[in-house]
Amino acid sequence: MPQSRLLICTTDEVPGRRSITNLGLVRGNSVRARNAGSDLWAAMRNVTGGELTDYTKLLGEAREQALDRMAEEALVLGADAVVAVRFESCEIARGAAELLAYGTAVKLE
User: Fold this and answer.
1) Beta pairing class for 81-93 and 7-8
2) 18 with 108: CB under 8 angstroms?
3) What is the Cα–Cα distance from 88 to 66, expressed in whole angstroms?
4) Over the range 12-47, which residues count as b (16 or more CB within 10 Å of their CB) and which as e?
5) Chain segment 10-52, per-residue pLDDT in tens
6) CA dist., res. 73 & res. 81, Å (int)
7) Can you tell me the distance from the alpha carbon of 27 to that of 22, in angstroms, rounded to the nearest whole number?
8) What pTM does this model have?
9) Residues in a beta bridge with 64
10) Cβ neighbours of residue 33 under 8 Å, at least 6 residues apart?
């Protein structure tokens, strides 16, 4: 995993470290589509209640892939860390959603 060589945090700074260079915005995204089986199971869960585990797994995989892609972009720039990391998601087509991870790549002292 590329992000293991990189500090990733949601704060504006890495606690206890000083940023010396702002390398700019880095981002990674993943677009995933549901399958018909998951949709059928989700429809039944809407009646009975409970977690939609297939969707939970799908979103978790998309989140990790987006983070990995963001980290790869930061490493190409020579970053030591990505700060102010955020996630966004949106539906881009019926049954398909994008998950975007973004932050600021920095060099640390």
Assistant:
1) parallel
2) yes
3) 10
4) eebeeeebeeebeebbbbbeeebeeebeeeeeeeee
5) 999 999 999 999 999 999 999 988 765 555 555 555 666 777 7
6) 11
7) 15
8) 0.82
9) none
10) 93, 95, 96
